[in-house]
Amino acid sequence: MSNFRSNYRYTMFLILLLDILAILVFYPAKSHAELPKSDVSTAEAEVNKAPEAIVNQTLETSMIEAGDKGSGEVASPPAFCALSCVLPSSSIPPLTSKKATNPERVTPVSQLLEVAPPTNKKATNNSAGQVTSVSQLSDVLPTDWAFQALQSLVERYGVIAGYTDDTFKGNRALTRYEFAAGLNAALERLNELIATSTADLVKREDLDAIKKLQEQFSPELAQFRGRLDNLETRTAKLEANQFTTTTKLIGRAQIVLGSVLAGNNVVTKRPAPRNATLQGSTTLRLNTSFNGKDSLSLSLSGGNIESLGQTRAGLLGTFEGRTADNSSITFARNTILLGGVRYRFLPNPDTQVNIYALSDGASEIGLSGPINPYFESSSATGANGISRFSRRSLVYNYGDSGPGIAILQKLGKQVQVGIAYSAPNGGNPTANNGLFTGRYLALAQIIYYSSNRNFRVAATYVNTYSPANTQGLSGTNFGPAVGSNLVNSTVPGAGTVANLYGLQAFYQVNSKLAINGWISYGAHRYLGRGDGSAMDWAVGLAFPDLFSEGALGGILVGMEPKLTRLSQSVNLGAGAGQADKDTSLHVEAFYQYKIGDNIEVTPGLIWITAPDSDASNPDSLFAWVRTVFRF
After folding, report:
1. Which of the listed residues 241, 271, 297 is the one where a domain comes to its end?
2. How many Å apart are CA 174 and CA 144, to the nearest integer?
3. Domain with 320 in it: what CATH number?
């Protein structure tokens, strides 16, 4: 289909220019008067277009659209080719034009530099001089279908220029500005050739061929002119309306089938029930933009999904293997909750500010997404991996739902820095709670991307504090809410502070294989009592388009957070100075199969060795099948 569009593009443009040339030669009295007048008015309309709405997009995408599309400036067209620029019918904008918002594009800030670099507003500086031989264009080969046509246009008429990197970019999408620039350059050159009429530059047989083509394709040319005139009318209507506040509703429903297949409850030491369950949940997200450069996101959710490894009171008696799909343990099941309120805006094209009254800590603001995209996905689309551990390292998991602020900043094209402050109990005015006197998480992160975007590495630091005897929405006072029971434990009556350090990396080997991994370290301080240390690590493999286009396979092996050291003066329930004595491994595999664009089924298995970091506990195994419907 891409070849068809490309062929159509060059054919239509050649036909149009042949038509123009015939008019200039055979009907000189009419000259340019019969050219579609919509070129000027449409270009003027494009200059005055309203900025495109930025709704839950990546920082890179938001910056591109706000800086290059929403500023009202017109990018100068690159002087790349005067006779290869055509405006195909498929590229004529629909009625919504560029002013229509795109709130359904909910993507984590993870993909900050994944999209194409912003358009250079001084694109004319990238243009090369006049091409005198088609061999100067490195991406035009003699085997290309348009090679002879380009060779003729270069050597006989001299109306082609290239980019500074000696490329022609014949398959690149064409903008209206580039079409106008190419058409103007072609007309000037044709007028010059016809005016001089000295050398045999325009042969009689060529003019005969032009006339014949004009007659053969006159219906298509008439239709093309009509489409341009219609576009002018519709664009004028959009200009009159300008940008209006728009709200987009995005829905996500899921049904999960789960069951413990093997394992004991680590607290009672008795076999866990092997009962299969069928549960579900629904999330509705409302995305609103007020000026085209901001986004207000509201989330409503409810369900009855019980995680198989969510709390010590769960089936397995541990946080290990906690699934990513689960309802809040602090609210009744099947209750509709306001799960997120966030406002995002861009004070400048390189900066994004998120203010949220309620969200899921670092996960909601997207700082964890870029390092593990195939397992985590976005907050709107849900995790791809089965477990919460497979999504991210412990440095992000100490956060909890609550208000806060996050600022993301681009430093050039390959570096992003982010800072965030979140208070899990910031909406609670009672003692030892609130925005600044209660539990908090302060995060700083820097991410480096390779120039070809197939590699990224991030360094993250988190400082967190929990007052004594408080509890967040995850059901814990402190800790990552995954991993062993000891790493999630605190000393009764004592506050807890932690400094967390994480190093994470992702490498896209090719279109069918990606590797990610991380290692994290946590330094706990039980105020007035002593210290402890925590660690986790993981390595994952992702297989995009496995067995089927759009499918995704994933395998992850790692060590969930465990307490590796504890002061002799501290007792967290296992004895004074007693840390986790063994190493528990988390092994996970899933396969996500897409049924169309809006339905996907993801079966998976989670295998935990030495549960609760205790080799005396038999391995646990449970299955999870998630079906997601998007609307």
Report:
1. 241
2. 19
3. 2.40.160.10
